[in-house]
Amino acid sequence: MTKQHPLIELRDVGKRFGGVVALEEMNLEIYPGEVVGLVGDNGAGKSTLIKILAGAHPHDSGEIIFEGKRVASLNPSSAKVLGVETVYQDLALVDTLDVPGNIFLGRELIRFGVGALRVLDKPSMDERSQQLLDRLEVRLPHPESEVGMLSGGQRQSVAISRALFTNPKLVILDEPTSALAVREVEHVLALVRQLREQHIAVLFISHVLQEVFAVTDRIVVLRKGRKVTDLVTTETSLDTVVGFMVGQLDGDSHA
Amino acid sequence: MKVLLKGLVFSLLGLALLLVPLSSGFAQGSGFTFGLSLSTLNNPFFVSVQDGAQAEADLLGITLIVTDAQNALDKQIADIEDLIQKKVDALLVNATDSAGIATVVKKANDAGIPVFAIDRAIDTSTGASVVAQIASDNVFGGRLQARFLADALGGSGNIVELEGIPGSSAAIDRKAGLEDELAKVASGIKIIADQEAGFDQAKGLEVMQNILQANPGQIDAVVTANDSMALGAIQAIQQAGATRPDGSRIIVVGFDSIDQALTQIGAGNMDATIAQQPELMGKLGVSAARLSAIDSLIFSKLANGQFFPVPVKTVTAADL
Amino acid sequence: MRELWRRWALDYGIYVVLGLLSLVLWQMSPYFLTASNLLNIGAQISMIAVVAIGMTLVILMAEIDLSVGSVAALAGAITAGLLHVTPPDGLAAGVWMVVAIGVGLSVGTLAGLINGLFTVWGGIPSFIVTLGTLSIGRGLVLLFTGGRPIFDLGQDFAQISWGKVGSVPVPIVIMLSLYVLAWLFLRSTQMGRYVYAVGTNKRAVELAGVNVRKLKIAVFSLAGTFSALAGIMLTSRLDSAQPTAASGWELSVIAAVVLGGASLYGGRGSVAKTLVGAFILQIISNGLNLLNVQAYWQQIAKGSIILIALLIERILRGRR
User: How many Å apart are CA A121 and CA B125, to the nearest integer?
Assistant: First the structure.
């Protein structure tokens, strides 16, 4: 990998909730187009880290630097503007809407009208969402059906497709395979590889280490709110990572 | 001489014994507190009952605590329990449900508070006791309606009956009086439709519309258990342009004598209503309660749970 | 295949129920399927149906509004009260009537706004909030009317409920126009889509950057406006504003919405089917009136039909 500037950089970021330290001295870099795996036991601080990156929680200390520029504060909207999209574990899909309805949620295409009476431009939304799905090679037999009727894997594809709508630079996937059957897991991993191919960085959080090894370039291990180590995937092993996760091995954080 | 003197002393003593409680009571004319638990203040009838009761209470220097159960039995139970807690000297109860109220009335009995039933009966079969029931003679009112109809229809014809809230004593009594008297004095009058309309104008309108649909051109008269339903029926009749088989206006007889009904009678759209005297009812209630509070023992023996009918009368255009 | 049947039954089942019921009633009474009876039914449901539009929107968002009856009564009472006030100099009576109606509608919108604010900003479940406004609203009606009906509202005002467009009663025209507008709103506008989405997954909609709070408050306010309109229609129909007006509407309206397939958990429902639900409930009453069935049976029939319909819907929906 050529030495580039990191897409996003966390320097000494910390976060506490009341008396509990969720993150401490967090230093992390994510480079454009790379897939970074984020692993750690429950309570290690993974979800706090995601939420800070997504702008859902403000950080208490440290700096967030995006494309070389320091970001003073983040909220969900400004995070999206910067190019960070998050797909949460529960997918945040509206089951009673169809695929275009979900993809365009909050940013519907309007044919005409103002205020409360904005008439939807459904044909355009159908077309655009189909294009998006095609771009990701996602095949859905009936995109007009309610998203609630789709399988777990299909729903995951829709959620990820939705995240790509804004042409983000970083997509955060929070446990994307946790509720899926084996066959569907493969589809999601294929999607992640697609994203990398399209030079979109991915932060991939998972408990299933085999998947992390299958698809990531680097692996970051968190433990008790701190980054324990930062490894290149091809240069390490599953046992090593587990060792770091449970505290058997002690690491220094990578600069 | 000694015997005479002894006799005099004893009779005087006896009289004094009788009079002392009475007189202390009379001296105590002011200072009583009564509770008046009404089923609802939504209804102008009961508003008038309250007015009459309040006026009498003011006259006699009695404090009157009025509660409104908003037609809910459980609220009324709570209201009465509150009044029992406040240790009122007498309780006037206008029951939302004649049977359901019995338990809490029994509580009042146990607390030594004399209870009077206002307008609606209170079920005494399960151990509750009332000193007296003060109500319009609803049964008699029903009979008056029947007699008016018999007169107006010449003894025969088809009529529609609109009943009140099922289970309420007013609805039951008026219906009973009406149908019993009709059978006696006008066997040629047939009730071809008999539906309940909840004492409500909107429901009366709707139900009458439907009945008119099902019995086109066959109705001679409508008799209703209260004026609100009659007003609804009149609207239905007017809107449908319905008439009696011979083309004349359908006869409408109501009950309650509310202002709007009198207006309709004066305007020639309605024929008769039965006037209760709710203010008089309230007044009598307070008076009776006062006598009872002064000497409940004597008064309850005299009253003995009886029905004190408050007079009703027919009101027609001739009376306006 | 079975899946297809299931889906079809869920989507269209209620129309089949309506058809069957109509057939049965037509068989039992020749008066049922006449134009005048059907128009009557249409006018009879028009008020509840109008409220049901607002209620459908609220229930779609996984909220509830129990205050609809009180708001309707309050709007009707205030409009009636204003109609009795002499308009300021120079203002035609017709214009004043429009002003009175406008004020009535605004009162409803305000009530809905209060419901929305307390639910959204106060974080109190809408069930509780609207239970409160139900009580307060009814109290305000009593206060405003002094417990007595306000009568004589003028011929022009009566046109709202008694006028006709061609041979179709005005209330039916109002009802159908509003239903068409609501249908278009829900299926074709952004806000309509959000109403469904919020009831299905509020968090997802918030994450998408939509101001869900504003949306909910707006819908509650709109529901209040619909209630007010229905209340004014009722007042016109009875030519009076009554303290007890619209009591119990909340139950009938919710029954219509739920019968129409809406889920009380939000996200599922349609105004078209709500209208069918309202219609089904009314033709049951209508049929029972036409057939002169006793009052107690009517209650039992209505309740049973609702329960059975809901049970069937639950079975069809399966483990969801």
Answer: 72
